[in-house]
Each structure stands twice: as C-alpha cells, then as structure tokens.
Recover the amino acids of this structure.
C-alpha cells in the first residue's frame, strides 16, 4: 500500500520550481516525494491559490506553473484532488486559529482523505486530526 501525501501550495511550488527554490525542501520531503511507494496529491485549491496570488503579483516566478498546472502534476507523478462538499463543510466548520482559507481547505482535505500534509507552515500546528510532515 502506498503512503499518501497532500502537498501544501509552497511544497508544490518548490517541488516543481526551478533549481533556485528546490533547496527549500527538507531532505525528508525530497526523499518522500521521490519514493516510488509515495502517492502524491495536489489540491485543486492549490491552482486557485497560485493563479490568484500570481495575478496579484505575489508569485511572479511561478506563472509558468499556473499556466502548465497539469504538466507540473505529471512531472511530479502527482494527481489532482478535487474539492468535495465534505472538504468544504469541514473547512468552514473547523475551529482553527488559522484564518487563511487556502490553508483551512488543505487541512480539511488532508483530514477527510486521511492524507499526510507536507508543509513547513507552522499555522497547521495543533489542527485536530491533521498529520504533517516536513
């Protein structure tokens, strides 16, 4: 059985970005992503976050990933995780100090789908039922 992981948006960007951002990934994360028995998932929310922030000028280096999202997924041997009503209901009802809607949705997806969230974001600490890796 494969180990299943959901990539946080920054993890996805760093894993698919140019060599200048790749070193931001921890050794454990790089090994996990490259492990043949790893199943990588990327949320549909991630594309929304990337394109929204790129449009606002916050992610100028990652426009090509926004435009070639499916190609980037294929390059990582990852699959897209669509949003469901279960994900959105949990994200909206979770009592978390983290107010970022993108983070809340990723946490809800990871919890609902029993995935480990690969993130270095400390905002996820203490989320009940959420397991993270960095």
């Amino acid at each position: 059985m494969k180990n299943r992981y959901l990539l946080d948006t920054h993890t996805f960007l760093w894993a698919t970005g140019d060599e200048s951002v790749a070193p931001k990934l921890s050794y454990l994360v790089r090994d996990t992503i490259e492990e043949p028995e790893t199943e990588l998932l990327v949320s549909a929310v991630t594309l929304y976050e990337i394109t929204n922030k790129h449009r606002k000028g916050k992610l100028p280096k990652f426009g090509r990933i926004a435009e070639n999202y499916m190609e980037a997924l294929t390059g990582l041997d990852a699959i897209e995780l669509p949003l469901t009503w279960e994900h959105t209901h949990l994200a909206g009802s979770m009592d978390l100090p983290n107010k970022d809607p993108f983070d809340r949705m990723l946490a809800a997806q990871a919890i609902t789908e029993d995935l480990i969230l690969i993130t270095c974001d400390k905002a996820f600490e203490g989320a009940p039922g959420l397991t993270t890796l960095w």
